[in-house]
Design goal:
Elements lengths: L18 H25 L11 H11 L8 H22 L3 H18 L5 H12 L2 H6 L2 H22 L13
Helix pairs in contact: 1-2, 1-7, 2-5, 2-7, 3-4, 3-5, 3-7, 4-5
Length: 178
């Protein structure tokens, strides 16, 4: 197959999901983001801590709507965010004078680390990038960023996923833990 021929794809589009699946995905993502949002905006508002980061939006897609995906499982959710956050902070601290370089090294290294540790979670790449390009509030956290918000927020969203995704008989989460 030619190089450009590969870009045509090999299969057809997957079937549409049921309205019930849409509703449960909406409920889960609403409650998961609401949980970290309430903590962020109501409990931590006057502190230097943060709880909600942009990468959690992408995690919500996986753990509430693509629950059978290997990328949505607890090991990947938590490991992907924490490992990537540590790498992102390290890249900012060592390469922060060149944000373009720190950004590229952080994301590429986070992907490699997640692959090597079997914790691939695409939003983890965003967590690494946020550690580099985030606000002064994020930078001030240093390595605490990996625990709070990245790790703690992922755990809160996981708890919501465990509770909500197992309510309907048609859904089961997780597929595996380790």
């Amino acid at each position: 197959m030619s190089y450009f021929g590969k870009m045509r794809g090999t299969t057809t589009s997957p079937p549409r999901v049921s309205i019930q699946e849409v509703i449960w995905s909406w409920i889960g993502s609403f409650l998961g983001i609401a949980a970290v949002g309430v903590i962020h905006f109501n409990l931590l508002d006057k502190s230097d801590l943060v709880m909600i980061i942009g990468s959690f939006g992408a995690s919500a897609v996986l753990i509430y709507a693509a629950i059978r995906s290997p990328l949505a499982q607890p090991r990947n959710l938590i490991g992907g965010h924490v490992i990537s956050a540590i790498i992102g902070v390290a890249c900012f601290q060592f390469l922060g004078g060149q944000l373009w370089l720190a950004s590229a090294v952080a994301v590429a290294t986070a992907i490699a680390a997640m692959l090597l540790t079997k914790t691939l979670h695409p939003p983890g790449g965003a967590s690494a990038l946020i550690a580099v390009i985030g606000s002064e509030k994020i930078h001030a956290l240093g390595y605490l960023y990996a625990i709070f918000p990245a790790g703690t927020g992922a755990v809160i969203m996981l708890i919501v996923a465990l509770l909500v995704n197992n309510i309907p008989e048609s859904r089961r989460y997780p597929e595996f833990w380790l």
